[in-house]
What we know:
This protein is an alpha+beta fold. The protein is built from 5 helices and 7 strands, in the order αβββββααββαα.
Amino acid sequence: MPYRKKKLSKSRQSHFPEFINQIISTATSSPRGQAKLSAIRCFKKPGHDQCPGRIIVHEIDSGEIEWKCSSCKFAGSINSWQGCWADLSDIRLEEGEFHFEIVLPELDYDILNKYLVAEPEADIVTYSAVYSDGNVILKASDIDLKVLADILTSKAKLETKTRMRELVSKVLRAIQVALGESSIG
């Protein structure tokens, strides 16, 4: 019997473009030419279990974005991404422009990232994040942290879920500590 590549289910197929857009945003929000262990979870589900890996992204000099999973062999490259809506290179921060870091447990980051999905002003912070030893490190300038704090403050006023309010409060406190401010918002 000839080898057949396993096809993704319809629901998994519909999420793959979102996965690719996350890779583009992550690569283009980070300094060019550096490989980065991003906070993006691997898309693969071997044996119906989520792959534990995170995606390593690298925008190479040719303009192509290379990516691979840190755990399995899932990998690829993306070209012709310039100018698409996921391209954050216009607001990219270079290495010396990251002044603050906030460390979140990976589950908190995953929840926060989903919570902020409709907030493009937060993209530079969420996609600049890196994965390290079970935590996700948000890297940002002071202005980007203040924008994130404003977004979280306004969303928190409408939030009805206790767990989400607690997480937003936790992140706001971390931003306050990072910026050395007594109140934000």
